[in-house]
Design goal:
disordered C terminus, 130 residues, mainly alpha, single chain, 7 helices
Amino acid sequence: MEKRDIIWPWKIIYRKRLNHHQARLKLGKLKLLMGKVDKASEHADILYAKDPQNNDVLVLKASVLFRQAEQDKSLAMVNQVLESDPANVDALTLKSVMLMQQDKPAEALILIDKALKPDEKKRFYVKYSG
């Protein structure tokens, strides 16, 4: 990957006109994807201190903890998210990865299947009648 191929975080923030909370969340996710776990952890900690009940923040924090090999804390946060939002795709995906690491592929596939099914309450897709 060349330098020009990288989407710079500040460009995303500028283009989408994100507020501070959204920007920090987006930056945390980008840092995690870039493998900069320490920087992602900084963003996650700041967000968690301000809004510990936000599902997006909890999933980011859980992802960081998972990458830092703190699976117990990560699993507790993921379960907390799934209690309030059982159809949270990010939480379901992260939990399925954890289950795969624990050599429980059948349980992981159930969660992946659940994550791929559209949620009737949150319709982000178009239904066509034919």
